[in-house]
UniProtKB/TrEMBL annotation, chain A:
<keyword id="KW-0378">Hydrolase</keyword>
<comment type="subunit">
    <text>Heterodimer of HisH and HisF.</text>
</comment>
<dbReference type="Pfam" id="PF00117">
    <property type="entry name" value="GATase"/>
</dbReference>
<dbReference type="GO" id="GO:0000107">
    <property type="term" value="F:imidazoleglycerol-phosphate synthase activity"/>
</dbReference>
<keyword id="KW-0028">Amino-acid biosynthesis</keyword>
<dbReference type="GO" id="GO:0004359">
    <property type="term" value="F:glutaminase activity"/>
</dbReference>
<dbReference type="InterPro" id="IPR010139">
    <property type="entry name" value="Imidazole-glycPsynth_HisH"/>
</dbReference>
<dbReference type="GO" id="GO:0000105">
    <property type="term" value="P:L-histidine biosynthetic process"/>
</dbReference>
<protein>
    <submittedName>
        <fullName>Unannotated protein</fullName>
    </submittedName>
</protein>
Automatic annotation (TrEMBL), chain B:
<dbReference type="InterPro" id="IPR006062">
    <property type="entry name" value="His_biosynth"/>
</dbReference>
<dbReference type="Pfam" id="PF00977">
    <property type="entry name" value="His_biosynth"/>
</dbReference>
<dbReference type="InterPro" id="IPR013785">
    <property type="entry name" value="Aldolase_TIM"/>
</dbReference>
<dbReference type="GO" id="GO:0005737">
    <property type="term" value="C:cytoplasm"/>
</dbReference>
<comment type="similarity">
    <text>Belongs to the HisA/HisF family.</text>
</comment>
<dbReference type="GO" id="GO:0000105">
    <property type="term" value="P:L-histidine biosynthetic process"/>
</dbReference>
<dbReference type="InterPro" id="IPR011060">
    <property type="entry name" value="RibuloseP-bd_barrel"/>
</dbReference>
<protein>
    <recommendedName>
        <fullName>imidazole glycerol-phosphate synthase</fullName>
        <ecNumber>4.3.2.10</ecNumber>
    </recommendedName>
</protein>
<keyword id="KW-0368">Histidine biosynthesis</keyword>
Length: 200, 257
């Protein structure tokens, strides 16, 4: 069973249907025991970094992600759901950066490009041995964001270019994340989701 | 490799049905928005836009249903516009499965609505639709309302700049002079708006020949929206994308597996 964590961010019903298209049983939940025990946990995220992190913490999601990682259980972060897995982010931040879950010790910072958000379909360059991108290495995926990670973390990375090099996806043992929206990336996105589900 | 240009078909929806003839594809029900969305998706549309032209509130409720069904079956971004006046309207559409919403007249009447929506849901959900035409305003372009029939007494470039500051995530620029002519996009207008907009720019109005699409991109558009030229089969989305790719633009071809 796949659990999509409901912490008040974004429309989850269409995400649910995209994951169901892979053949998996999918629940949308804010119940921590369900989120902890699911075979795979999806952490979506739309909006600002700090607001998403607040939402995640309000359902104990930060602990859930850490515990799942220690137990070797799979978690997939999407868009801002990827960003808040990092140590911190500078979106609308004052002197102190917004804190994230801290799975990866890097910061999320504003993309250096004249036109933001980075909005639309972009390709990726894969470094390392990727499970997620098997069969869709040459495809495009749908991005909507103005902030991103710029440094490598994890065992395998996908990179995109918009103004500068940005981290489009990470695979790091049980924890994986995509900056783009696989659930909005057409057939290529559905294939990536299927790859993740089948790896569980 | 880089970010691809986007081709966006726009469907007018009223009371849950697509209006304006759609006469080129083999549809079992040419009025069904979900089937149309699905067909455009398989032809390579990069996003979809629904414009709700329902006159009644029950018509709008039906649109929510259409958005719900489309979002559950077609996995590409969906923008919904038409009649959105409050943060609550936006909330309903996003919950139904829209990824972005577009506002027009309501923002002209009350610009603060832009900031309210952006603060609550983020700029990335918010498209400002600007119906502009050539006129004797400061920049030579003015904003109109009522489908181009009335002047909003607002300079188009000043409005775009202000809207960007208030927090819109994208500009949809409709040329009311070019709209429906199929004589080409208003290139001068796209160039002028590009200079003041620091968010992605979608151009609309006037698409006729394949070269028209390329010229609008050269003028600075990130994405191109069209309605009748696709609905009436003047061009297929796949043909436009193939042409643009041959001309050297970065174009996403639909995945085949």
């Amino acid at each position: 069973m796949i659990a999509i964590l409901d912490y008040g961010s974004g429309n989850l019903r269409s995400a649910q249907r995209a994951f169901e298209a892979s053949g998996a049983d999918v629940v949308v939940t804010r119940d921590s025991s369900v989120a902890l025990s699911a075979k795979g946990l999806v952490v979506p995220g739309v909006g600002a970094f700090a607001a998403c992190m607040r939402g995640l913490m309000s359902v104990g999601g930060d602990d859930i992600v850490r515990k799942r990682k220690e137990a070797g259980n799979a978690t997939l972060g999407i868009c801002v759901g990827m960003q808040i897995l990092f140590r911190d982010g500078d979106e609308h931040a004052g002197a102190e950066l917004n804190k994230g879950v801290g799975i990866w010790q890097e910061s999320i910072t504003k993309i250096n490009a004249p036109v933001l958000p980075h909005m639309g379909w972009n390709t990726v360059d894969i470094v390392g041995n990727s499970t997620l991108f098997k069969g869709v290495e040459k495809e495009s995926f749908y991005f909507v964001h103005s902030y991103a990670a710029k440094n490598a973390v994890g065992k395998s990375q996908a990179w995109s270019t918009y103004g500068e090099k940005i981290l489009a996806a990470v695979e790091d043992g049980p924890v994986a994340a995509t900056q783009f929206h696989p659930e909005k990336s057409g057939a290529a996105g559905l294939k990536l989701i299927k790859n993740w589900v089948e790896s569980l | 490799m880089s970010l691809s240009i986007r081709i966006i078909p726009c469907l007018d929806v009223t009371d849950g049905r697509v209006v304006k003839g759609v006469n080129f594809i083999d549809l079992t029900d040419a009025g069904d928005p979900v089937e149309m969305a699905s067909t455009y998706n398989s032809e390579g549309a990069d996003e979809l836009t629904f414009l709700d032209i329902s006159a009644s509130s029950s018509g709008r409720e039906t649109t929510l249903d259409v958005v719900r069904k489309t979002a559950e079956q077609v996995f590409i971004p969906l923008t919904v516009g038409g009649g959105i006046r409050t943060v609550d309207d936006v909330d309903k559409l996003l919950r139904a499965g829209a990824d972005k919403i577009s506002i027009n007249t309501a923002a002209i009447e009350r610009p603060q609505l832009i900031a309210e929506i952006a603060d609550r849901f983020g700029s990335q959900v918010l498209v400002l639709s600007v119906d502009a035409r050539r006129a004797r305003s400061a920049s030579g372009f003015e904003v109109t309302t009522h489908g181009g029939r009335k002047s909003a007494e607002l300079d188009a470039l000043a409005w775009v700049e202000k809207a960007c500051q208030l927090g819109v995530g994208e500009i949809l620029l409709n040329s009311m002079d070019a709209d429906g002519t199929r004589a080409g996009y208003d290139i001068g207008m796209i160039e002028a708006v590009r200079k003041v907009a620091n968010v992605p720019l979608i151009a609309s109005g006037g698409a006729g020949s394949l070269q028209d699409f390329a010229r609008a991109l050269d003028a600075g558009a990130d994405a191109l929206l069209a309605a009748s030229v696709f609905h009436f089969g003047v061009h297929r989305i796949g043909d436009v994308k193939k042409y643009l790719r041959e001309q050297g633009y970065s174009v996403r071809m639909p995945a085949t597996f």
